[in-house]
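Please check this one:

***
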Amino acid sequence: MPLLAIETSCDETSAAVVHQGRVLSNVVSSQISLHAEYGGVVPELAAREHLRNLLPVARAALGEASVTADQLDAVAATRGPGLPSALMVGFRAAQAAAFVLGRPFLGLNHHEAHLYSPWVSGQPPLADFSKFQPNVSLIVSGGHTILVHVRSELAHRVLGSTVDDAAGECFDKTGKLMGLPYPAGPEIDRLAEGGNPKAYDFPRPMINDPNDDFSFSGLKTSVRYFLRDHPGLLDDTQRLRDLCASVQAAIVDVLVTKAIRAAKRLDVGCVTASGGVTCNRSLRQRLSAACERERLTLRLAGKGLCTDNAAMIGILAERKLAVRTDATLSDADILPNWALE
């Protein structure tokens, strides 16, 4: 029987129906335009939009999948990490639905779900775990940069994470310094296409450190001082493109170098990447080239599964139910700071 999954950890309201590794529907309502005028996600506004959108989105997901509520086998939702007020909307709604239907409920870690999104592909999307390999997984989103050793299905260990700004934050914050609209990451990607990535030499923080942690606050500060010392640069379209390409190259260099180095050290034959920043074209190209050079298999989450979505929550829930993972207690609460271990 199918499973309903709900995701409301930040500014996307999403519901999906999953059945035997097949994503029957994955409906996402984005709030980007709502938060753009504030230059970032406003938690209270996000929660209000989730309250407004969740029921229509869930109905749409069920309708697209041709499934009724009483046909569901289980209900799952993101438990954390995320914005507390946003998480609460989806988590409590899913808990209530499971209780009313008398079905098992699973509250899941958003980042753990990202680990399995690269294994979902095709039309309609199918989870093909027959090709699963031990891997080093790079999760790169707006607020998190995490490197994980996935030894086998549902068995993983975090190797390193950001000690300050995540890669996505660095894209958005440097973009704001350049006067670009929020979210700035996609705009930097677009402008960088016509720029010279070697035009300006920005630092690659922690790229040579022996650990697997990340730091991008220093790069952001470097861009701030660079703009201070080069007044008028932003008025020149080509120099702005060069700046975007140079900043992007610095971020991507760090991500690719650390991921490949970890894969070689751990002697795994596969690298995966997921999270919103994985939509960045340069990151996808550079990871692909590096993995080909090192003879590593690369699996990238499809762009529709990189950003926050309920399909990955549903896929993970199915895998956990298959190994008889205990249901989440009916009085369980959200875990806004739930760190992947």
In short: Residues 84 and 336 are 5 Å apart (CA to CA).
